[in-house]
Amino acid sequence: MRYQFLGRNCGLKVSELALGVALFGTAWGYGADAAQARLVFDRFVEAGGNFFDTSDSYQFGQSETLLGESAQSMRDDVVIASKYSSGAASDASLAKTGNSRNSMI
Fold first, then answer.
1. 58 an active-site residue?
2. What is the pLDDT of residues 27-62, one digit of tens each?
3. What is the spatial distance between Cα 73 and Cα 38, in angstroms, rounded to a whole number?
4. Which of 44, 51, 67 shows the shortest CA–CA distance to 16?
5. Which GO terms describe its cellular component (predicted)?
């Protein structure tokens, strides 16, 4: 796997391929269950991948949860990009209330 810096000034090196994990979870009625998601995560990491893309709206938040559980033991070695406030989730969480600092945290 080849790596490149993310942006110009942050110093983070990420794999040239990112794994989008929108289908980690089954809350939408389809997707990868926890065991399948972990297998995909492990295979991507074994291939040298360290860059993951998710959103709080994917699988109504289940995607972020499964990714976090998979990455927990190697948190210093992975980079996770997540979007917020897209409004697709079924709940009224803080992330759906705008793009303020409080929404991000």
1. yes
2. 999 999 999 999 999 999 999 999 999 988 899 999
3. 13
4. 51
5. cytosol
